[in-house]
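re: ur question from earlier - yeah i can do the single chain one, its not a big deal. heres the input i used so u can compare w yours
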Amino acid sequence: MRSSQVTIKDIARELGISPSTVSRALKDHPDISKARKELVKEMAEKLNYQPNTIAMGLRQNKTNTIGIIVPEIVHFFFSTVISGIEDIAYSKGYSVIISQSNEKYEKEVIDIKALFNHRVDGMLMSVSKETQDIEHIKATLDRGVPLVFFDRAIEQLPCSRVVVDDFKGGYEMTKHLIDQGYTRIAHLAGPPNLEISQRRLEGYKKALIDHGLGIDDKLIWFEEEPTTEIYSRELTWKLLGLRDKPQAIFANNDMAALGALSVAKEMGLKVPDDVAIAGFSNWDFTQLTEPPLTTVDQPGYKLGQEAARLLIREIEAEEDEYIEPETIILDTSIIVRESTRPKVNVG
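and the output i got, formated as tokens:
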């Protein structure tokens, strides 16, 4: 263990107590016994613990500014998240700086450094599709900057996060298609490195298993192209060209569903008579397509509000106070429209 990086969590782990107890003991809190305080201080000295002066400095020289990194500002879901963040931030006296990675890892690295250099009090972040190396995020946390993930999170990092129940959304959408009479259901999955893609895929698979349908790997395709609609169009041409083509397509997001819908029409197929199509996110255009798209609704505005609340709680914590990372999972619901009408003459 490198002494220069010893944290309150390290002391807690060595003593078998909670980080919050260590934090209070180091600050001579009256609720902590004298014996416990001495034990904590002895361990802190043994491990050569030093308070995070960078974090303390940031708190003492607040800019009352929050940094936000989103994959795409034009994305309907992320724009609603930003609205929720701004409403909470402004009500608490904070302004926001918004950066977009454009789904590029290199741009994300630049954005996080730029926000740090602007001395934001904390950051809210949804990672790009390309992000696999997370050293830039670790470096930001090591500098004592509070960071909360929203929607797309890095599970192995000790940060609070606000996400939707992607597993439930994937499960219930697949169940909906099965209930409509569709038994051969394809899934256009998102990038495999993203937790949300894996959760939606897991929900899809579990629904198939629970309803006695086998999992056909030929019907599961992962996103590889940078543009969602491009990848979904290419894969839909392949899927609908199969001898035993799918009866329904469940897309990882609404843009992918839109791509599938456009290809089905170009092939002369009727939706949903020849193939049903469903998406995820409930973008505003989904009710304007022909036919209107069935989708999973996720509460972006509330997600933004909750993420902002968690971040501001960390920003306004007392110096060197340990805040236990929290995960908030918001519910999803199915919005049923014409693109998944019941299959006729099933069986």
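The CA atoms of residues 81 and 303 lie 6 Å apart. not sure if urs matches, ping me
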